[in-house]
Amino acid sequence: MSILTWYALRRNRQMFTTLMSSLNNSHPFKLTKFETCFLFLICSTPIIHTSMKGISVFFSHEGENTIYGVEVNPNLKGTVSIIKFMVTYLVYPTWVNFLVLIYCLLCKTLCRALSNLSTAIEKCSPQQFTLSRQVDIIKQELEINRVVRYLQAIFSVPSLLLSIAHFGVFISALGTSFNVPTLKIGWYFVIKFSLTLANSFIGLVTFLWMAGGLPDEAAKFKEAFRRKISQRVMFLRKEEEIHFEKYLPDVSSYVLSGWNIIYFQRSSILAVAGTLLTYTILLIN
């Protein structure tokens, strides 16, 4: 799954460069302190999980110095185990969480850009909302819409794979927990199980919430624009020759999707939560 995601992104690397250049020119891509700390936590995930596994093995006295049934030196076994766990946790959840973070930050930046446009419209008086001002706002909105199309083209397949990864891991972790004997449930299993469930569920919900913010902000922008047009018509007591409302794109053009299979909207969060709850009940029964 991670290899497919990497390959899909690599194919669109030039488009991704264009996307970042467009954002840096109009809406600088900056990390807050919280986002920086979260990025550091994501990058530290392999080390944290490997350390916990090492401590668990040490205290459980799993002393067999064998790898696939072959007797080896204890130091060699330790080295191989560390590399194995580091690579495993680098693939998931580190790589997946890193891409989800990038995707969410891009969506957040675009949402903020649309929100700033809506705020600018609200602050503008009907007298100041002239044709030239309307043209300027429409141009800015078209630029944002162009970046959104780039985002959709780049992350169409990766976003689908990331969603499947989080959903699949959540169900897999639940299924595994019911098949583990009670005697083998130690502190490491409980912590790993809790972190895996929390990571997959929060990652999936955050994914839907941030991507679903774009159509919401687009709807607010269109409503603000139309309301200001109505106020200006009432103020002038006549309709102007040009109606820029028809140039406003549909809100659906801001709905991101995973390969046109999964549509990321905030209304989908309840559906996902219900699906996960249903699977949980089925596994319990």
Automatic annotation (TrEMBL):
Keyword annotations: Membrane, Transmembrane, Transmembrane helix
Top-rank lineage group of the source organism: Eukaryota
Bilayer-crossing regions: 82-106, 150-173, 185-212, 267-284
Protein name: Gustatory receptor
